[in-house]
Amino acid sequence: MVMPACDIPIPKKIKLAVRSYESQKTIIKLNGIEIGGDQVVIMAGPCSVESREQVLEAAIVVKEAGAQILRGGAFKPRTLPYSFQGLGEEGLKLLAEARDETGLPIVTEVMDPSEVELVETYADILQIGTRNMQNFPLLKSVGRADKPVMLKRGMSATINEWLGCAEYILAEGNLDVIMCERGIRTFEQITRNTVDISAAPILHMISHLPVIIDPSHGTGTRSLVGPLAKAGIAAGADGIMVEVHPHPDEALCDGAQSLSPEEFKFFMNDIKPIIGAVNRRL
Ligand code: PEP
Ligand code: MN
């Protein structure tokens, strides 16, 4: 049996984010974890850091269930100015405390070029959210940072536009870029967004960058997180980002898509056979 050769056109004007030879692969090493290697990396934690108790409990729960990276937002991009905006630097300090407690590296969002230096002193991975994918001053700024950057796909961006944004970061000298598919806007309204699973194999064909799938923001619905995570892993994703809250019903943000501790334990067991089936490991 012969696998079909890559027939996805490689965008000609993009230089650094596309593969220049077939086996080129960016593997980001962090705390003994390899993002883009054999492992499927699970980034889990609350949407927002709300309190010391909440983030520490979440960190312990996700660590015990087998996640390798803790997620949590301190600077939150909210649709309305009246919604919880995050704890800011206090949230970053609590994340750092959770890292000290569990040993899990942390990924957290930065929204403003003027805050990159601050967020970088606490974070292990800088996250660029969907709403800022094309914030070019912000991309240039994280491109000069010393930490890996996880670039979420703009909710209305094509894959080539998204790669163009990765190019902004790479062109500044930061070669540790992770692509995160978090769902795009379509006509479907049952789900919050439509998870474009094809982003994983397409990016792997034309780019060397690791790909993470975020079925939490992708679906907006707790019961769909597991099925879409499994589909993403089967399609070759290098990791999954998933929201977990100690008490989802009390979450200040994104409770409907957050898994409870028990649901997250089930989730971690449920994805294992799929990880094995694609010859990867946790
Ligand atoms: C998040 O991960 O906290 C987030 C706000 O996601 P997105 O930018 O994908 O909406
Ligand atoms: Mn969220």
**Helix percent band:** 25-40%
> Rg from C-alpha positions?
17 Å
What is the CA–CA distance across the termini? Answer: 29 Å
Mean pLDDT: 97
* Regions with little confidence, pLDDT below 50 for 5+ residues: none
Number of helices: 9
| CATH structural class | Alpha Beta
Number of strands: 10
How much of the sequence is in beta strands? 5-15%
Briefly summarize what is shown.
The protein is of the alpha/beta class.
Q: Main traits of this protein?
A:
single chain, 282 residues, alpha/beta, TIM Barrel, eight-stranded parallel β-barrel, two-stranded antiparallel ribbon, 9 helices, 35% helix, 14% strand, globular, binds phosphoenolpyruvate, binds manganese (II) ion
Characterization of the model:
The protein has 282 residues and is of the alpha/beta class. It has a single domain (28-277), classed as Alpha-Beta Barrel (TIM Barrel), CATH 3.20.20. The chain contains nine helices and ten strands. The chain has helices at residues 52-65, 89-102, 116-122, 136-143, 159-171, 199-206, 215-219, 222-234, 261-277, and strands spanning 28-30, 33-35, 41-45, 69-71, 106-109, 125-128, 149-152, 177-181, 211-213, 239-243. The strands form two sheets. It has an eight-stranded parallel β-barrel with strand order 3-4-5-6-7-8-9-10, surrounded by seven helices. A two-stranded antiparallel ribbon has the order 1-2. Helix 1 (52-65) packs parallel to helix 9 and helix 8 (222-234) packs parallel to helix 9 (261-277). The two termini are 29 Å apart. Bound molecules: phosphoenolpyruvate and manganese (II) ion. Phosphoenolpyruvate binds next to loops.
